[in-house]
Protein 1
Amino acid sequence: MACDFRRGGKLKLASKPSHVGKLQAMAEEIRREVDPSAEWLTREDLRNEVVSDASHGGILYPKSAMMHMGRYANGVAQAAHRHGAAIWERNAVTARERVPNGWRAARWATWRWGARTPIRSTVSRGPPSRCIQETRGSCPSSAPIAA
């Protein structure tokens, strides 16, 4: 899918001296629990990454990636449509229901089924308000869609 994906890394910078301790602790936790390649960079180390002395340190996530979200969303929508899904834009989630591992959108403002195989919303492990916020205006897949 053409969405300008690239893995270029990410820096989270400490803009104030008071941020350093918390970010150092966060870097250690991320390295221990999530990504062993994440590392804390001192102010001096940052000079190799950023031409500035404005930051007091930072976390480098070398595996972090980015993509053009609009192109990605359009690509997913096109693949879903090719496989028989009906897509309704600007269709707000108006209700949710608890499922064993989180929340699922249960009702949309315009509730119509037109697809041969309806696509249900993905499960969010976040709080209910986040689930609604993330799914508003779209009906994301609950399983991967082959392009």
Note: The first helix runs from residue 20 to 33.
Protein 2
Amino acid sequence: MDMFAALQAFVAVVDEGGFAPAARRAGQAPSSFTRHVDALEAALGTRLLARSTRQVSLTEAGKPITRKRARSLTSWPRPTAPCAKGRARRADCCA
């Protein structure tokens, strides 16, 4: 699982208030956001979002993640262009 993509999907769902709005904003299918959040929840072993047919809300386990999200997502190193295309050595990928 791509943890960075899963965290981004989770944050987008929280910020947009649902899977469909987050997916629309990103130009992707809602099912891709569902898969990412499901994988993140499975990796952490807990539910982060309470889902119903009409709304999504944070669980107690999800709240601390959203409070720390800005710092966490902006502090992760980003791959440089050659790394994103798989043409560089792993050690050269983070700028």
Note: Residues 3-92 form a domain with the Arc Repressor Mutant, subunit A fold (CATH 1.10.10.10).
Protein 3
Amino acid sequence: MTDIAYRNPVFSRPANAAIDMEIDHPDFGWIPFTASPDDPEEHGRELYAAALPSAAPYVAPPPAPYSLDKMVLWLRLSEEEANAVDAAMTLQSARLRGIWNTAQSVQSDSEFFGTLLAFLTAVIGGARANQVLAP
């Protein structure tokens, strides 16, 4: 078994395929290191096995922001859904209607996107709202 000290292990890939950590290198001090169960080097496999019980869970990176053209949104709605969205929009605040009416696209990382998602969820349901607003 390796005698390399390590700290801060965290699973870095889905299905626990690798663990990122810092190792105490004899010449360079604490440096980043990625260990995996199929590492070509024995010390990599040993570090993976040693860190396995204490590794923090894998957290998938957030999706990249995207832009959705409003015409695409309308094309994704059925005729019935489009009528329901149009009717419900008339009941929204002037500010929300103004943003909706002047925007050509919707940015997924904007404050308005969250508001639009909540609005569509109320009108057509959560699953459909997510489908309509998908990249």
Note: Residues 67-132 form one domain.
Protein 4
Amino acid sequence: MSAIDEAKSYLGQLAPRISAKDRRVARVIRGLLADREATCTWTDDPEGIWHTDCGEAFEVHAGSPGQNGLRYCCFCGRKLAEGST
């Protein structure tokens, strides 16, 4: 078992016993350990809220996430891809 597989397994074992904040941190770490080509697609709604593939929402006041310098999802750690609604 590789070090990455061991880390993923350990995080999976911890998940039921940790707080919501720590689960978010664990999700980011798992995302960073995931396939480097994996992406998290963000799509915007008419109110300007961007919804993520990983189940979160983010408000951008002006422009798009990419126009504001976001390259990675701040929730899961995967590369950010912008989708259209």
Note: The radius of gyration is 14 Å.
